[in-house]
UniProtKB/TrEMBL annotation:
<feature type="transmembrane region" description="Helical">
    <location>
        <begin position="47"/>
        <end position="68"/>
    </location>
</feature>
<keyword id="KW-0812">Transmembrane</keyword>
<keyword id="KW-0328">Glycosyltransferase</keyword>
<keyword id="KW-0472">Membrane</keyword>
<comment type="similarity">
    <text>Belongs to the glycosyltransferase 22 family.</text>
</comment>
<dbReference type="GO" id="GO:0016757">
    <property type="term" value="F:glycosyltransferase activity"/>
</dbReference>
<dbReference type="InterPro" id="IPR005599">
    <property type="entry name" value="GPI_mannosylTrfase"/>
</dbReference>
<comment type="pathway">
    <text>Protein modification; protein glycosylation.</text>
</comment>
<feature type="transmembrane region" description="Helical">
    <location>
        <begin position="12"/>
        <end position="35"/>
    </location>
</feature>
<keyword id="KW-1133">Transmembrane helix</keyword>
<dbReference type="GO" id="GO:0005789">
    <property type="term" value="C:endoplasmic reticulum membrane"/>
</dbReference>
<protein>
    <recommendedName>
        <fullName>Mannosyltransferase</fullName>
        <ecNumber>2.4.1.-</ecNumber>
    </recommendedName>
</protein>
<keyword id="KW-0256">Endoplasmic reticulum</keyword>
<dbReference type="Pfam" id="PF03901">
    <property type="entry name" value="Glyco_transf_22"/>
</dbReference>
<feature type="transmembrane region" description="Helical">
    <location>
        <begin position="110"/>
        <end position="131"/>
    </location>
</feature>
<keyword id="KW-0808">Transferase</keyword>
Length: 147
């Protein structure tokens, strides 16, 4: 996002492609602001750049992924494509998650985020206390004469 805000288009596109292809394929949605800016807002100046950087980033990463995945799986594989095909286009993929009762998710939350679960209810009062302390400190220093 920082690269996008600094108009560093190649870095923004490459990092989006990297996160979607090497990480989680559905993270590609995070590149939507970059695509909208380049393809719709500044399309006369940046559309060719968008296409060029996208094919370059995607092509290099896909080639490297296929090499690595093929080595480890022993057959030609593109793992991110399999994830999308299974979860989006198959009949049983979308049913895997979100079908458990609420108690299952609460137990998982407590098991995986045990310390954070305990501290979370304290975050709002602590933030309020910090804000009021900083405000009173600012008010005190504003009334001290200089010199």
């Amino acid at each position: 996002m920082a690269a996008y805000l600094n108009n560093e288009w190649f870095v923004a596109i490459f990092c989006t492609a990297l996160s979607a292809l090497v990480g989680w394929p559905f993270a590609a949605i995070l590149g939507l602001p970059v695509v909208l800016e380049m393809a719709l807002v500044q399309y006369r100046r940046l559309l060719f750049t968008l296409l060029n950087y996208s094919f370059l980033s995607g092509g290099v990463l896909v080639i490297l992924l296929v090499i690595v995945d093929t080595f480890f799986y022993g057959k030609p594989v593109l793992a991110p494509l399999n994830i999308v095909l299974y979860n989006v286009l198959s009949s049983h993929g979308p049913d895997l998650y979100g079908v458990e009762p609420l108690s299952y998710y609460l137990k998982n939350l407590i098991l995986n985020w045990n310390v954070a679960c305990v501290l979370t209810p304290l975050s709002v009062p602590v933030a309020g206390l910090a804000f009021s302390s900083l405000r009173s400190l600012r008010d005190e220093t504003a009334t001290v004469p200089l010199g």
